[in-house]
Each structure stands twice: as C-alpha cells, then as structure tokens.
Amino acid sequence: xxxxxxxxxxxxxxxLKKQRCxxxxxxxxxxxxxxxxxxxxxxxxxFSAPILDYIGKQIMNTPGCxxxxxxxxxxxxxxxxxxxxxxxxxxxxxxxxxxxxxxxxQNKGGTEARLYTYVDVITVRHFIALKQKMxxxxxxxxxxxxxxxxISILKEYExxxxxxxxxxxxxxKELDIAWxxxxxxxxxxxxxxxxxxxxxxxxxxxxxxxxxxxISPDQFSVKQKQDAMSLMKRRAKKHLCNLIVEQxxxxxx
Length: 253
Fold this sequence. Notes:
single chain, mainly alpha, two-stranded antiparallel sheet, 12 helices, 4 strands, 61% helix
C-alpha cells in the first residue's frame, strides 16, 4: 500500500506501475477510462501482452511469432481484445466500460482483486466463449459441406482425374458418404483450396498444425508454404477418391 500520498492523481505513471498495489491499480484504471494516452498505451501494451500471450497459445491455438528472439502470440488477438475491453465505442472512442467497473472488490478468500487479475479473468472468459463459438460454427459449416462439395466438385472442379464422378443427382450420395469419412485435416484443406479457392498462403498458419515437420512455421519460405499446402491437397483429394472407389467396389460384391 502506498503511504503519504497527498494526491494520487499527481503521481507519474511510471511511479504507479512500480507500486503494485490496489491504489495504483485503481488510478491506472481511472486514467485508461479517461483515455489518458500514456495509460492507454501501457495498458494495451506491456500490461495486457502476457494475458494475450496465454490466450493465443493456450486457448486460440495461434501460431507463435518471433519478436526480439522470443515467441509471442498476442499480436493476432490484439484487435479483438481492444474491441472487447474498450467497449462500448462512441464515435470510435472507447469508453472502457469494463474497466470502469473495476472496484478491487474482495474475493471469497478476503483478498482484494488486483487489476491484472480482474482483466485476466474477464478476458479469458471472453476468448473461451469466442473459441467455442468459432469451433461450433466450423463444424456446423462442415455439416453443410457435402452438398456444397458435390456442386463444386461435379460442376466446377476438374481435379479428380483418377475416377469419373457420376453426374446424376441421386448418385451424389457416394461423395457425401466419402466426405463424412475424411479426417478433419482433409476436409479443411479441400474446403479451403477446392471449394473456397483460397490462397494457400492465407491458410498456412492454420493448417501447418497438421503437417509433420521439424521446421518451425516461421522458417518456411513462401514456396515451402505453397508446396506444403499443395501436398496436403493432393493427399486429401486422393484419399477422397479412394473412399469413393471403395464404396463402388463394395456395391459390386
């Protein structure tokens, strides 16, 4: 606890940062809510980076980025974090409502909550909910994918040279059944590169987790990234073809 303070509002931010007590936490929060430039920069930077590093690595499964010789994960989620913690916005200016609610209230154990703990708890909860929603949407989209896959492959995609796919609508089921048997990595790579016609470089960071390699993702060259995604696509396409042929062979027995 800081002692002999005539007016905490006159203390410098650097001094407050070093105090590590409830009074300094409350003052820093107040300054951020009032959009004091130095306080906001500190809060969104050094103060919040460790929280977002944890979230990026442990919750969102974000590929790390090398910063000054150290791997960090906070950069990709800083925008979402700013929109969450700064809300609501009035004429693009954050009101920091969540920070304005910080009162250092004692928890069940009788300990007063530090600002870092308060921000950490509410932010982690937000990103857990966000990740769950993203995962749910991903699987809902994949549930709808066989029909889209059928249309895209049969009418547009010319990459299935190994087999001749039936064009009669009643025969589309064989593709749907084969699709359902594909592992997640194959469904995703075909969804991105065949159905959505995405740029391989745009999906590399997400799909590299499925590649068995000893090379760090940040050390891949542009061509290596493209080759890795192309190889995944070829393997997934062949896997899907094999599953369709397998069905046809079973029907002939």
